[in-house]
Amino acid sequence: MMIDDSQRDSMFELFIFETRQLLEELEQELLQCEKTNQIEGSIDAVFRIMHTIKGSAALMQYRNISELAHAVEDLFFILREDKPQQLNTPQIIDLVLGAVDFIKDQIACAESKQAVDGDASSLIATLHQYVAQLKAGDEPVKEQNVMKETDNPGPEAPGYEAVIHFEPGCGFEDVQSFALINDFKQYATAIRTVPESFIDDEDGIHLIKSQGLKLTFQSDLDMEQLKTVLEKNAFVKEVVLTCIEDEGKQTVKSKPIIDLDGEIPQPVAEKETKETRVSEPKTKQSNGEAGVKQSLISVNVNKLDLLLDLVGELVISEAMVTRHPELDGLPLDNFYKAARQLRKITHELQDLVMSIRMVPLAATFQKMHRIVRDMSRKLGKEVRLNVVGEETEVDKNIIEHISDPLMHLIRNAMDHGIETAEERRSKNKPEYGTVTLEAKNAGSDVLIEIRDDGRGLNRERILEKAKRLGLLTKDESELSDRDVFGFILLPGFSTKEEVTEFSGRGVGMDVVVKEINEIGGAVLIDSTPDVGTVFTLKIPLTLAIIDGITVRVGKSQYSIPTTSIRESFQMKAEDLITDPDGNEMIMIRGECYPVLRLHQLFNVHTEVTRIDQGVVTMVESNGKGLCLFVDELLGEQQVVVKALPKYIKKVKGIAGCTLLGDGSISLILDIPGLIQMMTA
User: Fold this and answer.
1) Does the pLDDT at position 258 exceed 70?
2) What is the DSSP letter of 300?
3) Which residues contact residue 20 at a Cβ distance below 8 angstroms, ignoring those fewer than 6 apart?
4) pLDDT value for 502
5) Residue 194 Cα distances to 160, 230, 273, 663, angstroms
6) pTM score, two decimals?
7) Residue 670 and residue 655: Cα distance in Å, rounded?
8) Which domains, and CATH codes, for the chain?
9) Strand 591-597 relative to strand 624-630, pairing
10) In DSSP terms, which residues pair with 533 in a beta bridge?
């Protein structure tokens, strides 16, 4: 069976999505097994996951992934069927996690269009060796259950017909069918399928769901052996096997492996009419109920982005119509009544689209368990991870930016923060350290805290390193604890003298700041000696729609995110301070802040040039402040964030643009970027 390029392209995204989901599920399953030191209850789940990955990878022609998954599948097939009495659970978990890491790396290569050619031979050999050890410790396999591979059955090999029914609601019937056939090739030849085409073919998939997958083939295996091979697929519900040798027919009908519905669809004979009964896919419910239609579908992320853009355009168009200046003063009561109804519907539609894009933090948080587990082993520290508020939801675009920062902060807490067991005992602390990962809503923001109960940050050591690097911009007596702790966020800053696998290069915290600033967030640090350290990530709920204050500079308009604004005021000319280099500053409540004139930065002509003629808006990010000088404030409104066109190169201080209700364009200011530019 060959797959053409168009079919391969259409299934690539599905393969990546499905495999990543399965690997995450597998990781969590194994980590739970490690906590209980019991793997028996998860054997079926691991087998099913690896079987699916094997088939999907074979379909995409990623042979190394498929063979590795097959090796893991073989191990768990032995565990499931032979039920060995002596199991080394930690060793099994390590073997499978090693396979998971390899597959993850290869998936990343596939996504980045690199060659998926990693060498899995050592992992496969180790798995085969472990399987051999298990078999050596069990009773000899009975002769009638031995199945030999028949790569080339003789010409006189008997012919068979098999009708395979999959579990209702298992999904991806085309992938399951391909995986079954691909695995079955080693036992049979002259394989023919009905339907002939089913890869990414709705008609073929429909036929498999309603009538089953029909195979005709030749094999030297007997019927009981063939039945065992075909039932090996985790999602096979029933196999109807018929020997078509000579004129007589012998039929073997397998028992369903799992009876979900109490009713097994019967195969349809060839001479029957083309009318078929369609069984609705059913999903397994936690309470065991059947007959519920599948209520979840997968949607391409690009389609959601396009839908949001269209809704944004609808909101803007509605505002342009209802606020058109030509309508002022006209008696249009019915029009405004209809306009209010339209506005209500567009806002509800906007909220609904935004809710569709919202994703719980649970999946991202659960990934941290694996990091804690691996680092605990390598550092020789016992660390427990507590997760709180994982049901908190954020925009899917936000999720993509916080995974790496969380990883670096967790590693930092374990390497720098958590003490060794001996050190903790000397401080009358529990021998095990605790890292808490908590998320909670705070208005239009989400706060994510990473807390540890370790040694805390050494203020004097950080300050001394900052002095050596020439980072102090004011007298150290004027620096607060938060100012000093902020130095560890700078590129290349590290208090470790030796570079290790996890720290010492001063790179990790730089990644945290970069990623969080990119989404308009902030990083705050608090620490108490011998009590612990708290890193707080303040991130917006969404990047798609923001609350903003629109300001005017000359004939240009700019939007400032409301979350970045601390206050706005008018100042007197005599309050302006100018240093010898010509830099302007203002003193506010004992703190000195730089002043940035937007008309000078963006070269905009304006008549408002005196400081006492315009408005000063103080903005803040990462604990640092900046005063923006503008002509006037125009008002507050929600704006739909749009990226700048690709033909416009990135402009410092500009994060994007939006269309206002009157059809004019407003540039959205990048507050973290402006502050960094002025304070660097």
Assistant:
1) no
2) -
3) 107
4) 53
5) 14, 16, 16, 58
6) 0.64
7) 5
8) 5-140 (1.20.120.160), 159-253 (3.30.70.1110), 302-359 (1.10.287), 361-540 (3.30.565.10), 545-679 (2.40.50.180)
9) parallel
10) 452, 527
